[in-house]
Amino acid sequence: MRRVLFIDDRPNRQIQSLPNGLDDFITIQGIKGVDVLDSERIVLLLKAINSGIIDGLINFDLLIFHRSSLSQKGIDTVRKLCKNSNISFILFSGSLSPNTYFKQPFPLLVLNSKDLYSDKLIPFLISFSNDKVKSITELLYGENWELPLLMRYRQLINKIEDENDLPISMEEALDSLIDIFGKLDLPKLNKLINEKIEKV
Amino acid sequence: MKKDKLQFIANIIEKNKFTANQKERFVKLALEELKHNEVSDNAILKGIEEIKEKLGITGDNSSRINETKIKSSKNQIIQTQERRKIHDPTRVVNWLKLFTQDNTHIKFSNHPWDDLDKYENIKVFFDELNSEYKEGRWHDMQYYSPDLYWSKIYPFLFQKELTKIQEDGKIKYGWGKYKIKIGWQYPKTIKVWSNTNYDAKPNNQKITPYEMKIPDKLLPEEIIDGKTIQYFEDVVDVFKKEIEFRDNDLYYSIMKIKKKELNEFSVKGIESLKGHCFFTNTECVLKAIERIFKMIKKRTSASIINISAQVEDKLVIINICQDKSYSDKPINHPKILLEKGSGDFSIITKILFGLCDFSIESRFKDKENNTVYAQIDYLFEGINHTDYNPRINIIDASAGFKYILRFPL
Amino acid sequence: MNALLIHNDNIKNSLINHFSKEGLLHFSISSAAMMKETFSFDSVAHGILKNHFASKGKYDVIFIPYTLSNENYLELTGIIVAAHIRLSPEFKNTKTPIVFLGSESKGQIAKLSDLGGILFTSGVFSTDKQDIDSINNQYDWILKNKKELNDIEYSNFLEKLDIKPSANHLSYHSIANEWAIYRWASAINANDSDIEKIITNVETQLYFKYLRTLYPKKDIPELHENQLKIKYSESPKILYIDDEADKGWYEIFCSILYDINNLNFSYLDEELQSKTRDEIIKLSTDKIKAEEIDLVILDFRLHPDDFNTSNIQEVTGLKLLKEIKNVNPGIQVVIFSATNKVWNLQALQEAGADGFIIKESAENSEDIDFTKDSILAMTGSLELCINKVFLKEIFTNLSPLSDFVKLLNSTKPKNYSKKGYFIPKGNIPKYCELIKSCEILLLSNLTNLNLPFLQLILIIEDIVKTFYIHGSDGNHYVEISLFERIPVLIKQDGIITLKIKPKPNWSSFELSDFDILKGDKDYKYFDTIADRVMFNYRLFSVLYFKYNIALSDINKYSRLYQKRSRAVAHLNSSDDKIITRDIIDAVELIAILFKNNNKHQK
């Protein structure tokens, strides 16, 4: 079982933002492995994190925080921890900003609340706690999580074709894609991608 | 009291038979001492100047002294180069490990400054760095791994000014494999940028040097390892890769060399190189591996290569074995024994000096022309670079021609 | 080739190397940058583009891959960057042709990106080829056939772009707030660190760039200081309640109220955050009472729940408005809101809102005068309300009386009589109505106080009439009780004797008999029925003989009747205006008249 810590410093806001409000909140609370603390404990935990203390975080595999709940020091503290312990981090806020994802130095997804509190959230949390999630981008793309990876695969293949050689970082990226999808040539990739985009 | 001191100094210099250099040095030391003890006492300093004049250490004689100085510096350099270097990879790795040690400042020359109140200003950081340079005796690294020190560590971290040769334009400042034109303390770009963007700002608005955009004239000409260098953070990442194999870097780097040199060969076990992380001069190691592969390439009849890497007794041991390929040379062949300082083994040994223990295993012929299997150690503990012989150990058998590299963790 | 290639090392090296240094922009965002407290993709992208274009001129063509993200292709950040370039005049390339690089078709990308519409506008091309020859050919073709967008094509592009803000209400509210602050700050030339932050946001966020392109700043008419002046006589105590005051509105109000008009004000903002609705209401009303606030500027939505409720009666601003009016109906409340819904405004008006300040939403900005008009409406509204703050003092006195009379009205007759009130119970309902009318008139937008004053005078007249009676013997009496009356005017042998002696102007009296002889000029005024005797004499007689009020204490009420006559004669005139003091005196007098006779209490 993989553990998730899900913190919004305004629980009322969290309930309102969920598609089915309180019902969803209760469902999330009931998912094994997912911790949604009560207000008092949230306040204590945030105080600790914002002072640089990580004790409350080390047993988790995925941390989900609202940006406003963390000071810069808090964000830096979490970042250090995630880097050292390879913990995934989702940082969300109510801003207009597009979503951004980084795999290195640790999986980091920065997204806006609208995309976090979607109908994909609960299935994602259940999947993650059952160790069935390959990439936290599945939160954004649900069943279509393979699509961005296939598109990147194609981009890398195109680069090799011209250069016969990839820099190490891209070799590594390509290898991990091959691990997931197997070795695919361009025609196969094109077909797969077209099919997936059709379904979107 | 003061006059007594001056008199004392003058007497010593007159009575003792100092060379010009020694006189100069003595006066300088005395001056330093006096400056510490008697704050800005012009009479004293004037007195010293008079003594210097009397002794002919100033005026016309200064140019003579400068020349002597230059000559002696040159000699010093030559001496350094000729000074014996000791093969001690563990010692080298211990220096490099400081880059990830929590209680060092040198760590923060390689890691982003998460704590913005750690360094009040850039001068504080540089002072700490330079202090650790002295305390850690980093200067000594040149006697253990000259290329690592002079090509990477020193210019990137500690060099503050151009060396004489660089000033003369004979060689340009640049560190590492890609001759990158910017380091922490030279040129002054980081210092100047930090004065505005780090020093002058309140803590929560400080922008660290990692985020500095590299000025166009200091940017590398080419894309480095598939990445366009833009910020100082990118430069630091390049440096990190020069001193450490991380994640699967070793595997992919060797794969590249393999694709280039050994495409026609069947290379097995290369996956075992994945995940090995250790500090070393990565450029040199890969150069050595390339050379090894080139040597292997010459022997086309033996097409199976077995590569393995494992951790044992705090060492990463890399074995590269060309199956069923044997030297069969006389074991006391000059090239085997590195006698003339030329030949592939000599070159590989020079490249790997100070980085790892290096041995080969194969089948040879002894004095009586009998077949003998032996492991020849080219680099092992305690040797210096000029004064040793390879160590020969007779073994029972060998699967082929094996190259063994042992890196300390 | 005067072209720009924007890339993140995800394009073939041969192509990157083909472009000169001037024509290359490496676009990458580090994970460290993403972890900054103030990170937003748009501001970082804007910064990168600004740095590049600062020293570069116009390009003939811009090449961008669909995505500039190496970790998540579907971010399609190349399209976002292209939109930035199209919407930022400061980058000098708003109409430059753009070529997208990627294996996907335009249709596919349009499906995957909210900004996909841009692909179907003039001057936007795509290619899946990255070899140098193809790129060169593309460049040459564009130069020959499609150099730059014209104005019509650019307008079409704006229409097709159609960027939507966040679907999240709270975020939308924040966005609308920032837009309104930006427009207002521009119009009145206000600035400080909070406004600076908003201006930075508005200048860097894509959605705001879109709005600024649709509604340019240069079109906002500037307002000069003298246009923002508010006329007032006395400086009221103002309280501004808004949980987002610190976002920039505080500074706007400082500029208009304090800097230009010398009107100081206090505010509640941060204290309201993380509070429940009831706590917000309590906090606010406590402060209003403690600081004796005269005028409240009140944000409509003060609690996150307010954004999701469909029942306007639940909205915190409305509930608080009602509470404030409960404290004192005279406290002026100006509602500050972006709402354009008529039923919201109606409900607020019914609850007693005295004025409205409309926060400008993006759609309002289509009208170039909207900003100016809404600011002037705000100063107008405030001026009106500031000049009505005297109502608070009136209601401070009137409300207790009103409550008291209502209580009397609801008291059972038996209990009423037990308490020994002078005024017959039967008269109470009529006095209730008159007081209610007075209240309604005060709270309506009257230009003068004559009518409300008259309501009160009618009560006083009626009460006096009840107790100053005409005897069957022709004398006048003040009825002390059902069984006792005191003669106050005696007619005998042609002499009328008044039991209190007037002083020369008849506005005060002393205790002494005063004879008026037949033939004296005043004789005829007293030789008449009780109801026609001069009001002041009757009033003083009743107050002195029945209510035992000292004559010197009654003097201040003597002018009321004079004012009453003039008020009736000149209902809409401002000559000899009825002032606050007059109303308060009238209320006081009524309160005295409603006193009970303690002697009769058991």
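qc> The domain at 171-388 of chain C is CATH 3.40.50.2300 (Rossmann fold).
qc> done
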